[in-house]
Each structure stands twice: as C-alpha cells, then as structure tokens.
Amino acid sequence: MSTSLLDNFFSGNRQALARIITLLENDADRRVSLSQTLYPKSGQARRIGFTGPPGVGKSTLINRLVQLL
Fold first, then answer.
1. Rounded CA gap, 66 and 69, in Å?
2. Mind listing the pLDDT tens digit for each residue in 15-66?
3. What is the SS3 assignment for 2?
4. Helix H segments across 1-69?
5. Which among 19, 27, 45, 46 counts the fewest CB atoms within 10 Å?
6. pTM assigned to the model
7. How far is CA 7 from the centre of its chain?
8. How far from chain centre, in Å, is Cα 3?
9. CB 60: neighbour CB atoms within 10 A?
10. How far apart are CA 20 and CA 24, in angstroms?
C-alpha cells in the first residue's frame, strides 16, 4: 500500500478514497492488510447493515437516512 495514497486519503482526497474502495472490493490479497491499516484510524465509526428481500425499500430508506446526515 502506497503511503502517499493513504496520506491523500486521510487529507480528504476523493480520488484516493475511490482507489481505496476499489482495492477493498477487488484486491483480496491486500484487503486484510489495508483493513488493518485503516481500522485503528476509524475512531468511533460504526457500520449499519440493511437486509431484506428485493423491493422492500432498503435503498429508499438508506437514501433518506443519508440525506438526514
């Protein structure tokens, strides 16, 4: 993992964020090490999962919640 990519990410660079998301999704070899690098810096971040069958409104609910943030 490039230190400059992480530095850019932590300084708010959206391109670096996009690249990190791509790596997390598509690069199984680096996923664990990248996650271990990022996790300690996540502070009080939380994950919320939305599950349910197709068509029940998960995306609609998530879109509305994001607007409220």
1. 5
2. 999 999 999 999 888 899 998 899 888 888 888 889 999 999 999 999 999 9
3. coil
4. 3-10, 14-26, 28-38, 58-68
5. 46
6. 0.60
7. 16
8. 18
9. 9
10. 6
The pair of structure tokens assigned to 12 is 């708010």
Task: Give CA–CA dist 33/36, Å, rounded.
Answer: 5
The full length of the chain comes to 69
Name the residue with tokens 């850019």.
8
Please tell me the distance from the alpha carbon of residue 67 to that of residue 61, in angstroms, as a whole number. Answer: 10
Helix (H/G/I), strand (E/B), else coil: 1:
coil
| Residue-level pLDDT at 13 | 95
The C-alpha atoms of residue 17 and residue 28 are separated, in whole angstroms, by 17
